[in-house]
Amino acid sequence: MSRSKLPDACENLGDIREGIDELDRQIVDILKHRMAYVKAAAQFKPTEESIPAPDRVAAMLTDRRAWAEVAGLPADGVETLFASLIEWFIQQQIIHWRVLRGAQDQSGPSC
Predict the structure, then answer these.
(1) HEC states along 27-61?
(2) So what's the pLDDT on residue 110?
């Protein structure tokens, strides 16, 4: 349950910062939960090349734009945010896929 004040009830910047920090903690927890799904999906990807799934990404971004518009947020900004987020999760899934299959990280020479 939230301990911070609602935005309209904030009396100073400290209240605002407390609310933002609480939301950011929740976002990190949600990202952890999303990562679990991303890693679970790796077991169903037959090849590393199948991970990016550009058609799926395009559909996801279209949905996120629509959700942003319904929420009254700038759709361009939300799409940019999710494009970066999705790309990062794709990279994490590639790393996890390689670990699952015992493949070496092919991002560069090992020392």
Answers:
(1) HHHHHHHHHHHHHHHHCCCCCHHHCCCHHHHHHHH
(2) 44
